[in-house]
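Researcher: If convenient, please comment on what follows.
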Amino acid sequence: MKFILMMHTRWGETGDYDIFKWPPSALDQHMKFLGALNQELEQEGALVGIEGLSAPNQAKLVRANPNGGPPITDGPFAESKEFLAGWWIIDVESPERACEIAARASAAPGPNGAPLNMAIEVRTFLSGPPPKRERTP
């Protein structure tokens, strides 16, 4: 079963991604923790993909506009204190295993070394019919 594990975090008062304000040693410890988790998932054959995202102050929110041209709003977005920081796509045998991995990711250390307990949203990929393939002679 494929799942997406979405890491949500909070942004600071000025729209900065707080992780960039951490002491270098804390950021290094955090990244080593996540790197070890990623390597373990890769060796297990569960890791399909992983990506991190830029801070909200670099984001754009686009909606269709009936008067032409897309209206674009620059981030950060006042209505939201949390944002999607990145995700893992995993292929594991059960929802329980996906939640175990999410709990480990949630426990990544913060600036003082204590677990951050970040929200990790676990969602199952919906699958449709397999693509049709043409036979080659």
Observations:
- The chain is about 25% helix and 25% strand.
- The chain has one domain: 2-58+71-124.
